[in-house]
Amino acid sequence: MTISIPNIGLGTFRLKDQVVIDSVRTGIEVGYRHIDTAQIYGNEAEVGQAIAESAEHGTARDELFVTTKIWIDNLAHDKLIPSLKESLRKLRLEQLDLTLIHWPSPNDAIPVADYMAALAEAKAAGLTKLIGVSNFTNAQLTQAIAAVGAAEIATQQVEIHPFLQNRKVVEFARSHGIHITAYMPLAYGKVMQEPVIARIAERHQVNPAQIALAWALQQGFAVIPSSTKRANLESNLKLQGIVLSAEDMAQIAGLERNERLANPDGLAPVWD
Ligand SMILES: NC(=O)c1ccc[n+]([C@@H]2O[C@H](COP(=O)([O-])OP(=O)(O)OC[C@H]3O[C@@H](n4cnc5c(N)ncnc54)[C@H](OP(=O)(O)O)[C@@H]3O)[C@@H](O)[C@H]2O)c1
Fold this sequence. Notes:
By secondary structure, the chain is an alpha/beta fold. The protein has ten helices and eight strands. The protein has helices at 17-30, 44-56, 77-91, 112-124, 138-148, 167-175, 195-204, 208-218, 230-237, 246-253; strands at residues 10-11, 34-36, 65-70, 96-101, 128-134, 153-159, 180-183, 222-223. Helix 3 links the parallel strand 3 (65-70) and strand 4. The chain binds NADP nicotinamide-adenine-dinucleotide phosphate.
């Protein structure tokens, strides 16, 4: 059976302690069924708590799609699987739905083939249903495909919003049939200040965040916006029926300005 990634997920980067518990609990309550965390976010235990509490309130674990990401310190072959077992323990889960390599090994110190093999072993051992990558250059994705095969790579999660459309990365992944997840789809709130998006939103009688998310969905990407507010969580999920015209899509395409928000020193590869 092919397992697919729900096209709208809930991001949890930066959210800690009670804030993340509340965001995930409210998110599940209003209808999110896909949750995105990572080892480095330091919130897997709280996400796990919110999932457990939601189960007590009627949303069973098997209705949810949960993603975590392996941090760069855990890419060595002898560390990856133990680190994923630790993530499962914190999340109070028996199996992840999706496990990503969060960032490629800085300077490719650990070869892509090594950690992709370890990730494939984690899947074979039943620790995760799907595996994938994040923040990979096209060269690194080529190596990942050589290591495990394109069909094994469920998604490439990359920064995509109207100001960084990442077209080379999207086209390359697509040419291998690899799905794309758009992270920071609201440009961490910046799309709300963009007049072109505001005008399109007004025409469709929705808000600017919904336009940015609909723009990504319309290209076939999954989106994982985060929010700490119930009203935003709700409206970010209400995207059915928003159909952007070719003219709307062209106007948003024109907002590309290579504005990369996630570009950590010492971690980011030389981007395509
Ligand atoms: N793989 C990676 O390396 C990577 C890197 C970065 C992020 N990610 C993932 O992508 C997720 C999303 O990225 P992000 O959280 O950095 O940024 P984002 O989702 O683009 O933006 C979140 C910001 O937008 C605001 N917001 C959300 N909905 C809104 C709405 N409807 N109206 C107005 N403001 C709204 C939120 O504020 P309020 O709380 O006030 O709503 C928050 O400040 C992360 O949480 C994480 O899971 C992955």
